[in-house]
Design goal:
Largest interface: A-B, 32 and 31 residues
Protein name (chains A, B): Metalloregulator ArsR/SmtB family transcription factor
Radius of gyration of chain A: 22 Å
Pfam family, one (chains A, B): HTH_20
Mean pLDDT of chain A: 87
Number of helices of chain A: 5
InterPro entries (chains A, B): ArsR-like_HTH, HTH_ArsR_DNA-bd_dom, WH-like_DNA-bd_sf, WH_DNA-bd_sf
Oligomer: homodimer
CATH superfamily of the largest domain in chain A: Winged helix-like DNA-binding domain superfamily/Winged helix DNA-binding domain
Number of domains of chain A: 2
Order of helices and strands of chain A: HHEHHEEH
Helix content of chain A: 55-70%
CATH class of the largest domain in chain A: Mainly Alpha
Strand order of the largest sheet of chain A: 1-3-2
CATH architecture of the largest domain in chain A: Orthogonal Bundle
Chain lengths: 115, 115
């Protein structure tokens, strides 16, 4: 399996959890400390750290420590590979729907010129 | 948890597997029978059916039977909810990077007007 495929496996798996998506959405608005990220969730710190670890391993976030406080931010690469893959499929799918529309239109024209 | 969140959990989990992504990519190019979808994969039929079932439950594909042959195609709704979520985050993230650029530019201007 290519690195790109492995990356996508890990990124999509990381995004398949509501808490982790909420953390990404929060970080899209700016960097935050672990306590700030944990605040909206009724969850013990080890679970929070586990979610952040999954996001960091997927390359979606970066963390750094200042004194006793750990800060998180979205990684520059971030969700781009996942979005790129989805956009590619969506484009193919839409161009296929367009082709289908053209085909139906052509059928209708052929039908009307027959009469 | 909202239906939208549950849907996203299932969609992203469905996309976190290379075989299932290959099936989606194949179906982006047009409908296919189960055997056509199975052909590139060295996998027993029950595993193939299991993957297709995951994709169908996530609302990514639709299947229908003609005689003895089961056909699959991308569902019209398809990957749109996942792409919508990612695009939203990406936009927020990019606008934040822009704001940061503006901030740095402003700092540089302030600095040069000081001298």
């Amino acid at each position: 399996m290519s690195n790109y495929s492995l990356d996508l496996n890990i990124i999509f798996a990381a995004l398949s959890d509501e808490t982790r998506r909420a953390m990404i959405a929060r970080l899209s608005r700016g960097a935050a400390s672990v306590s700030e990220l944990a605040a909206p969730h009724d969850m013990a710190l080890p679970s929070i750290m586990n979610h952040l670890d999954r996001l960091e391993k997927a390359g979606l976030i970066e963390t750094s420590k200042k004194g006793r406080v750990r800060f998180c931010r979205l990684s520059p690469k971030g969700i781009a590979p996942a979005q790129h893959w989805l956009a590619q499929q969506q484009q193919l799918w839409e161009s296929r729907l367009d082709q289908f529309d053209d085909y139906i239109e052509q059928l209708a024209k052929d039908k009307s010129s027959e009469t």
